[in-house]
Amino acid sequence: MSASQNEGQRSNATLSLGGRTAELPVLSGTIGPDVVDIRKLPAEMGVFTYDPGYGETASCSSKITFIDGDKGVLLHRGYPIAQLAENASYEEVIYLLLNGELPNAGDFEKFSKTLTNHTLLHEQIRNFFNGFRRDAHPMAILCGTVGALSAFYPDASDIAIKSNRDLAAMRLIAKIPTIAAWAYKYTQGEAFIYPRNDLNYAENFLSMMFARVSEPYKINPVLARAMNRILILHADHEQNASTSTVRMAGSTGANPFACISAGIAALWGPAHGGANEAVLKMLATIGSKENIPDFIAKVKDKTSGVKLMGFGHRVYKNFDPRAKIMQQTCHEVLGELGIKDDPLLDLAIELEKIAINDDYFVQRKLYPNVDFYSGIILKAMGIPTSMFTVLFAVARTTGWVSQWKEMIEEPGQRICRPRQLYTGSPQRDFVALDKR
Ligand code: ACO
């Protein structure tokens, strides 16, 4: 395939195949690589493109998040992630992702108030929790309960109405921390703590997780700031597996609560949102620094099936900009909590040191990702391992909802329907059971 550029015009790529040629438009975004628009390919050339895992395919156009994996750049609506994590509240980031711009003071106050007013759950939803075993994984509870919200808000199914979409977006983002915290309280056998309108998003989540009905709960500002950062760092990440799942489910016109539940299911796996939980399990398995060389040898041995969890990323191939902020936050939180010698942190730092200088990892461009340090922070804050992915889902709901809205509001939006390279049996005739 060759590409040509005529001044003043969009460039074309020319594909030659079996004596035929097709002119394929090359589309340019604001920043980032151009994409070849192959939509006419089947009609003109009778072929599809092959890209298992969609790693090299732009599945949509989007104005929300930009990533340059080689340079370690992550922008939300154009703003670098480090600036947002350092200066913004999570609520400002929600507004930004949903609406495209940062709010002014008046808009922010109105928006925060509306968000706060939607944090309560319908009292009937309490009954859902009783249906789960006490040892249920909170991701199972989250996935089921968020999907069940579609039964409480059937109007949301009429997604053609803008006010329905806006209301569903607010409800989802506002209610998910309440469901998440209650999933934890349920597994502990503790009374549910209701949301408080005087607290911000991060504080409210900490309060619903850790407050007890029997005593007042004091918010630690350092932990609230860390929680605010963790939420911002996980808010959106372009067309990853769970976001693409939400878009795919949403493209059928399904109820938005059901679509977000699908995203939660996709996030659950250890290759995606389950990684920070897997990092802690891995550190516990390694146990002490002396065992690191043996562990690294196992990771390099392809037959062992062992991976260095919290390392590597489908898109970031030099560094994950979120990992740097996480590492700094990790030190802040451990300092505040007076944890001077955390064996897990020591182990993580040593492991990182060894891995980033090891040829195996250098050659494959494997660096710590956002999850390498987030698990240590969350553990220090008292958040149990089983809640790590849940917290990720709480934060990512903002991205999922923003991407879902963007897709539905796009003119000419179509159902997602990838094609395949069929490698099964050619057509054959049915043979009756007694003849086989
Ligand atoms: N440990 C050891 N080897 C690894 C790791 C790892 N964590 N990650 C990739 N590799 C190796 C692969 O075995 C492969 O080696 P090969 O070329 O010799 O066959 C090479 O590096 C390239 O790996 P791919 O699997 O092609 O990389 P891909 O981009 O498909 O995978 C993924 C990315 C899934 C994140 C992978 O790096 C991984 O499993 N990491 C551990 C899990 C993890 O931390 N996930 C969190 C991702 S961040 C997030 O979801 C928020």
UniProtKB/TrEMBL annotation:
<keyword id="KW-0808">Transferase</keyword>
<dbReference type="GO" id="GO:0006099">
    <property type="term" value="P:tricarboxylic acid cycle"/>
</dbReference>
<dbReference type="InterPro" id="IPR002020">
    <property type="entry name" value="Citrate_synthase"/>
</dbReference>
<dbReference type="InterPro" id="IPR010953">
    <property type="entry name" value="Citrate_synthase_typ-I"/>
</dbReference>
<dbReference type="InterPro" id="IPR019810">
    <property type="entry name" value="Citrate_synthase_AS"/>
</dbReference>
<comment type="similarity">
    <text>Belongs to the citrate synthase family.</text>
</comment>
<dbReference type="Pfam" id="PF00285">
    <property type="entry name" value="Citrate_synt"/>
</dbReference>
<keyword id="KW-0816">Tricarboxylic acid cycle</keyword>
<protein>
    <recommendedName>
        <fullName>Citrate synthase</fullName>
    </recommendedName>
</protein>
<dbReference type="InterPro" id="IPR016143">
    <property type="entry name" value="Citrate_synth-like_sm_a-sub"/>
</dbReference>
<dbReference type="InterPro" id="IPR024176">
    <property type="entry name" value="Citrate_synthase_bac-typ"/>
</dbReference>
<keyword id="KW-0012">Acyltransferase</keyword>
<dbReference type="InterPro" id="IPR016142">
    <property type="entry name" value="Citrate_synth-like_lrg_a-sub"/>
</dbReference>
<dbReference type="GO" id="GO:0036440">
    <property type="term" value="F:citrate synthase activity"/>
</dbReference>
<dbReference type="GO" id="GO:0005737">
    <property type="term" value="C:cytoplasm"/>
</dbReference>
<comment type="pathway">
    <text>Carbohydrate metabolism; tricarboxylic acid cycle; isocitrate from oxaloacetate: step 1/2.</text>
</comment>
<feature type="active site">
    <location>
        <position position="371"/>
    </location>
</feature>
<dbReference type="InterPro" id="IPR036969">
    <property type="entry name" value="Citrate_synthase_sf"/>
</dbReference>
<feature type="active site">
    <location>
        <position position="313"/>
    </location>
</feature>
